[in-house]
Amino acid sequence: MNHSLVCAETVSRVSSVLNRNTRQFGKKHLFDQNEETCWNSDQGPSQWVTLEFPQLIHVSQLQIQFQGGFSSRRGCLEGSQGSQALRKIVDFYPEDNNSLQISCPCFWGGWSVPLEALDLPKPEWEP
């Protein structure tokens, strides 16, 4: 059974917040388990989230849920260890709906990279 590795020591960053309204649309809503709230980014060429974990993690699954009216056509998962530069791990192609989408390496079309130990995964998507 998979569970979220996000904990109190996980540092999150986002590309932007809609109208800079962090109270209503801030990153704190990414993991609050409340379907009535969400992080909402401003418009731009791409939106992203970084999660800096206090320990190395193995990415075995990526879960994304878009809310009403916005869905990405293409995304990319990047990652790094320690002070290394971010590097692309895999592209992914979300469906155009607002259901929870779960992506696993076995669905990533021959992903030849083994489950890597990362402490800074960064999913990014384009409108």
TrEMBL record:
Gene3D superfamilies: Galactose-binding domain-like (2.60.120.260)
Domain of life assignment: Eukaryota
SUPFAM superfamilies: Galactose-binding domain-like
InterPro entries recorded: Galactose-bd-like_sf (IPR008979)
Protein's name in the database: Nuclear receptor 2C2 associated protein
Taxonomic path: Eukaryota, Metazoa, Chordata, Craniata, Vertebrata
